[in-house]
Amino acid sequence: MNFISTRGNAAGIGFVDTFLMGLAEDGGLMIPAELPVIDQDKMKQWERLSYQELTLEIFQLFTGDEIPREELKQLIDESYATFRSPVVTPLRKIRDDLHILELFHGPTFAFKDVALQFLGNLYSYVSQRQNKIINILGATSGDTGAAAIEGVRGKDGIRICILHPHEKVSKVQELQMTTVGNENVLNLAVKGNFDDCQRIIKELFADLEFKSRYHLRAINSINFVRILAQTVYYFYAYLQLVRQNPAAQISFSVPTGNFGNILSAFLAKRMGLPVHRLILATNENNILERFVREGVYMPDEFRSTHSPSMDIQVASNFERYLYYLVGEDSQQVSAMMKQFQEDGKVVLSAGLLAKVQSDFQAYGVKNDECLRMIESYSREADYLLDPHTACGVAAYESCGDKNTVTVVLATAHPAKFDESIRLVGIAQEFPADIQRLFDKPQHQQLVDNDKAEIAAQLERFFGTR
Ligand SMILES: N[C@@H](CCOP(=O)(O)O)C(=O)O
């Protein structure tokens, strides 16, 4: 397996180098030169595998012999030993037509743990094997930051700096990131929004001299390994459901901000997973919904919503999808991304729009609708949705196929978003691991929305060795 850039100027790169590279050196995103295709016989053999065993099978298709199977197995086993559920990502049946895939049983109560527990261990493994310094730089709208920090805090040879938008994450998200006392962690609270944080780190990654001077590594979904780790739960959920009902047609409704989670589903489908429909659920920051509806990708005014992790306008992984949309033509991707940089938008032809609409259905959930969904599912189904999952359910209710089975991805535990849950008059009890955060001191530095100021902070933090 080798990897290339969506913009065509990096090719023949192995798995470990792709992992370390993060953003491709030509500004594009790394993807496999060719996706493996899994046939139905193989899928049948996978039906009874545990989550860990399935992860091993899928990863081996991409790592080849770069990581010996036994070592890969150990990394995977260690990563999922931290989960509170023995099956890692349990499915809850709400009705015959609706299941919830609970992805929040990891240490920070969000789906990001599924990939980031593994990435933390993989960074450690590579650092030891290659005697490499690992300095991680990431941006978060709330969940990635906590999970990334949890994946590497206290680990030798690794330091991590996370940028989050000041006062635009939930209280629990802020506490999860900022109450970590380990010296290898730096939290910068940026006076801006998530798009500002993401833009700044991408500019720093694109400055190749700065990137190599400070050995910068990526933890966000610009890193292909994040996407790969997230494909596993689509296979796992699908295989569990078809074991019970071999004739079932299965769709997924995916709360989407940075387009990483739903891109993993899209790639799983391209690898042969027989997904019926992919529903893209957004909040009032509905750039992706407008893209699917109108074929125009153009940021709009930023809005703070009840689902802050999805308060994103410019979605990182959009470029990876574009690559497949235009028939794996990197020149066309480069031209479209140039158009986006110059005109602030990408406009599709009618033919491409039809293709997008056959890949996805999309729905943007209004703030009040999100709360209504939380209230009605709590009352009628006795299930407490977090606001992001509520967007996934609302999207299913609005455009799903009720004669088939839809799996809504539960991307976070409701306790992470108590501010929103309280608005519908529900008082929840916090899990002990969340409750204890309120008694801890916080460590973070407030910085301006300014690349030079942030670069100076990084020089101080990463430059001391
Ligand atoms: N919603 C994310 C934003 C960053 O996305 P990523 O998938 O690229 O890490 C968050 O919670 O931080």
TrEMBL record:
Residues 3-80 form the Threonine synthase N-terminal domain. Keywords: Amino-acid biosynthesis, Lyase, Pyridoxal phosphate, Threonine biosynthesis. It catalyses: O-phospho-L-homoserine + H2O = L-threonine + phosphate. The modification N6-(pyridoxal phosphate)lysine is found at residue 112. Gene3D superfamilies: 3.40.50.1100, Threonine synthase, N-terminal domain. Residues 98-408 form the Tryptophan synthase beta chain-like PALP domain. Its EC number is 4.2.3.1. Signal peptide: none annotated. One of its GO terms (biological process) is threonine biosynthetic process. Belongs to the threonine synthase family. Catalyzes the gamma-elimination of phosphate from L-phosphohomoserine and the beta-addition of water to produce L-threonine. This is Threonine synthase.
